[in-house]
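Aim 2, interim progress: modelling of the iron/sulfur cluster-bound target.
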Amino acid sequence: MINNLSAKERLSIAREKMPEQDAALRSRNFAEVNLGLSLEQAMREAQRCLLCKSRPCVAGCPVEVDIPEFVACLAQGDLAAAAHALMRDNALPAVCGRVCPQEVQCEAKCVRGVRGLPVAVGYLERFVADWAMANSADLPGPPATVPSGKQAAVVGCGPAGLTAAGELATRGHEVTIFEALHDTGGVLRYGIPEFRLPKGIIDQEVRRLIDVGVRIECNVIIGKTLTLGQLREQYDAVFIGNGAGLPVMLGIDGENLKGVYSANEYLTRVNLMGAGQVFDSATPILRGRHVAVIGGGNTAMDCVRTARRLGAERAMIVYRRGESEMPARVEEVHHAKQEGVEFVMLTAPLAVLGDEAGWARALRCQKMALGEPDASGRRRPVSVAGSEFDLPAEVVINALGTRANPLLTATEPALKLNKWGNIETDERGATSLPGIFAGGDIVRGGATVILAMGDGKRAAAAMDAYLRSA
Amino acid sequence: MFKVLENEVLAPGLHRLVVEAPRVAAARRPGQFVIVRSAPGEERIPLTIGDADGASGTLTLFVQAIGAGTRKIVAVPPGGFLRDVAGPLGQPTHIENWGRVACIGGGVGTAVLYPLAKALAEAGNQVTTVIGGRSAEFILLEKELAAFSAEVRVTTEDGSRGRRGFVTLELEDLLRNPARRPRSVFAIGPVPMMRAVAEQTRPHGVATIVSLNPIMIDGTGMCGGCRVVVGTEARFACVDGPEFDGHLVDFQGLADRLTMYHEHEAQCRLAHAGGGMP
Ligand SMILES: Cc1cc2nc3c(=O)[nH]c(=O)nc-3n(C[C@H](O)[C@H](O)[C@H](O)COP(=O)(O)OP(=O)(O)OC[C@H]3O[C@@H](n4cnc5c(N)ncnc54)[C@H](O)[C@@H]3O)c2cc1C
Ligand SMILES: Cc1cc2nc3c(=O)[nH]c(=O)nc-3n(C[C@H](O)[C@H](O)[C@H](O)COP(=O)(O)OP(=O)(O)OC[C@H]3O[C@@H](n4cnc5c(N)ncnc54)[C@H](O)[C@@H]3O)c2cc1C
Ligand code: SF4
Ligand code: SF4
Ligand code: FES
Ligand SMILES: [Mg+2]
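Predicted structure of the complex, ligand included:
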């Protein structure tokens, strides 16, 4: 590969800034915040990469995207080659480029980050993936497959299931995805909002799968409509990627007042059902002038920024640790601040207070201080005596997290679970039942899109071997 | 897409729909429900499976058109399609031979009660059925219920059929009559009715099962929106219910949460009746 820039020249290029919608404007609409780099910007940013032989960035990526390779192609303006290199390792790059926590994965390991800013791998990945989507008609299609004569079922249409299905289909197996909801995408559709991940991307990815022969049947709840046992009888192998769809409740007084939501309910109403987002949507949502969101992860950021867009004057994050302990992506925190979100840190909820008619009116809180590090290595918050105060809030959203939903697993007692109810698998994704594989949040607990995809991919390889040996 | 085979009006605003949904029909047991979306963009509406026929792959639904969502469902003619039918959801009714039971139905609840009462009769129970409605035209399935009930008693608010008053009048008679007193009571209907029944049986110590109808979205335990306090615990009605011990249910909390979206619902109803939403 020709490379005519010296290291020194590369080092002198400053990291590109992502063009974004004006903060005041965007805090009132649902259109995507990040507008995407231009071709010139993307090529310039790609030229910052030092093409390290040791490839530390690759080791930081859970699916080991060949970063130097795709970035080098991009630096030279060969987008088709960049897309080819990128998609070898990542089935959903347009998604990952947008939602991966790059700052703790690929970009965290980038040598350029040691003294300065790392190469913007996420932005570049997004750029190449968007280009590939827009130009898919001109790109070579998937290679022709030889039908294996085997049938596989996939439970759940989130990133784990979508990836597994795609991999199995390109290996010649006949694949059917069963999805409980009325639409595809899992958390990508019902959880992550349009302003971070446009739903058109999921639609395109789903269409691509259908084009390679994957069947998707919505409204089928495994454990209810069909049992895992029935799938085992009707299919040669099964992949379970049903996510972690069970809200952890707050367990405080006033949790059942009107106006108190779990993040799952709040986001599903808006993202899956269009409440408050689509003009005259059939689905209702309480908007609230003051909205308090409890939690510090991506889900909390998504809720609070959604509340802003639904018109909240005060949209607040209430988190019991400090800002640097928040698990959310750095970019989301930054965007939330620009959009006028308030961060009420070192604060724990004690109760939701209501009025006589049963509506939430305030969140009773307590101040916290950081004590000794706990098992997770983060300093443990301890309550400060006598520090109670009330935050006015007509809408309170619980974004504490989710756990494994037992709907499916409860109907198959032979399937081995861990003590949190997650399915146990070996490193290939095989469960305790022959022919049944699993991956994503149902195995890991709430994790990330890229880890779910990696699981789907690994399990598909193991399923392929299983199907061919059977 | 799920084909509507029949759509019959039983009472004003109350329709009986027969829908093709073979997988749901094969898996369903009495007491379970489906979630229906008439078309893209519409609400997800929970509806009890009134009856199911595994052989023909059909479900019978009884739908009271009270708001925009249910009106759009009953507007689908035979030969038309419902976009989504997902289920069967919830726990099936626990059927057992208690000896003597009373089944109490109010409004559309009577239709939902029908398969339950039938299953109880088939399990050997002596079933006394009490059904109530606003007036004679809202009294449903009286003949059908009589086919297996030891007795069917009817009440109407205006006295146009049966005894004038509420179902609780007849239940009181049953509870006071040692020869008719039920071991278990099953009540399905509006929240105030189920609450009144539970309060009435409580001092008699008669087990009372009610079928709750909180606002639901997914129906799979994912959103927590359907939570109802039962005893000291918040339970998700879609996965733990919808049937619960009526003596433990926080009916006040349930009734309250059901009013959460009254404003939006009124607007949708207006928009559905004519023109767009304001
Ligand atoms: C609000 C929010 C924001 C997030 N933001 C980020 C982010 O920025 N970056 C990131 O990397 N990660 C993020 N995550 C985490 C990430 O979305 C998940 O880790 C990932 O989606 C898990 O993928 P999955 O395929 O295992 O499960 P899911 O995406 O949960 O998909 C599971 C699917 O299975 C279906 N299903 C469930 N039960 C059944 C059943 N019994 N039968 C049939 N189908 C069933 C569900 O309806 C769903 O469609 C976020 C999560 C949330 C909730
Ligand atoms: C498990 C279960 C079984 C049910 N079975 C039947 C049945 O067999 N036949 C029948 O006619 N009705 C049944 N219902 C009630 C039915 O779901 C509601 O009447 C319907 O959702 C109202 O929607 P709407 O848009 O027509 O009316 P709206 O005008 O939107 O609402 C009218 C009232 O219905 C309730 N409601 C609104 N949205 C929902 C929702 N998503 N889920 C539950 N309740 C809601 C609220 O109290 C609201 O004030 C059942 C409900 C549940 C939870
Ligand atoms: S998939 Fe995620 S972690 Fe891997 S290179 Fe792309 S953005 Fe980085
Ligand atoms: S570590 Fe950074 S500079 Fe080196 S190859 Fe990876 S992206 Fe390029
Ligand atoms: S309807 Fe969502 S948890 Fe019951
Ligand atoms: Mg409605």
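The two ends of chain A are 43 Å apart (CA to CA). The mean pLDDT of chain A is 94.
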